[in-house]
Amino acid sequence: MKKRRKQTQRKLKRSIIVFLSALLALFIIGFIGLKITENGTYTVYDIKTQEQYGTYNHFIFAKWKMHSLEENENIVISNQNGKIVALHNAIVNFNTKEVTENTSYVVDGTNEDGYLNGSYGTDGLYIETSNDGSKVLFMMSGVKAWVSIEDIQLFYYDDYLQSYYYVNNGSLIHAILIDADSAQYQTLAIGEAPDFLKENTTYFSYDGNWFYTDMDQLSIDVLNDVHDNAINSEAYFNFYQYVPHRSLTNLDDSDYNEYLSSVGISATANAYPCADTESVLYENGSIFTEVQDQTYINATMMFAVALNESGYGQSQYAIENHNLFGHAAYDSNPDNANSYDSLDDCVYQHAYNFLQQGYANPEDERYHGSWFGNKASGINVQYASDPYWGEKAASFYYSLDNGKDLNEIQIITQKLKNDLNVYDEVDGSVLYSYEKGDIISFVYTDSDNGWYQIMSEAPVKDGKIDINSTYTKDSVGYIQASDLNQ
What we know:
By secondary structure, this protein is an alpha+beta fold. 28% of the residues lie in helices and 24% in strands. The strands form 7 sheets. The chain has a 7-stranded antiparallel beta sheet, covered by helices on one side. It has a 4-stranded antiparallel beta sheet with strand order 2-1-3-4, with helices on one face. The protein has a 4-stranded antiparallel beta sheet with strand order 17-20-21-24, with no helix packed on it. It contains 12 helices and 24 strands.
């Protein structure tokens, strides 16, 4: 009996020893694991009082601590170099490099790369910092994306200048911050102000679709991917920013000269540098009209881009290279700009090679829609490093138009709640497709039995996209009304 009891006691001791050994092993493994995964030194503190709440070797632990103190909005996290890497209610400053350098990012939820230049738009909305402390999620010009913490700076928006919108004489104005140190803004009249926006009020938006009078409410909504606190109940899409290039303008050559005259230009430039009153665009509006006739690409939209890219037709590239659109004039090497035999050649190449073959071709990797857009959709996604290139082109279009195209061209613009196919005919073959969450915009021409007839983004031949064919008024597609947001 005693022998059996001793055997039982020995087994119990062995079990305890095994358990303690396993526990010790787990502790050692956990300790080693924590040491191996250390990713810096992060201090949580109050930026106003400098009171510290802890120092951690893992950003995730510092992040948890910061969020446990959310009632104190002054809490920040800095790394071992003293750089702030996370905080509440923040603005992302992108103006941290020379104008020749762009900042790369990765679109949230995708592997899609993008880029922007902080010299043309300084501030984005801070959303959160990744769990390893290396990247920041932001929203700017419609895109929600991840950027390296090393490429940006973070500031409280209560203590920092930021971009905003307002209404003046019926126009929607975007005041874009381009230099916080000198409080320098560029203001653009981008279109007619929607009815829900009023004068003498400051509005905030980092996509140009949803507007807020309070930055805290904007930040909360973007973080939770809702629009509950926005002042508009439906997304706003500025006509001049979202009208597709596959539309025909109602303006004529005299309208272009009239606009140039309104900004002091009254003669054609023949040599660089030219006088302030001269431009290669003056008396050359017919070039754009003729190319529209050949390619079905909106002449006024091309003229607006030329105004923006060539400095009203007065740049050296425009005069000496006949390059009106900044083709191949990269930020890092602007002198790489293309040269053309003539302005006629340049405008045609822009319409046919750059647009039909590329940015307006649903089968091309550069395609995000043929409208000017922003960094979330449209040509601006890949064409320009300027995050507000689309708004700037839209601003010129708005100034040229005087309501003519606005009142005549019918478009459908939405952010999709469902996948969307464009068919060659009713119940026909799929020409091209869009995914749920994409922004789409079409020139609408007719509707019947639950189907919309639209102008296709590319030429259609034998029931398929054929970018080498001639685009005509018969290059139409069909979409089901049930696939659109109802």
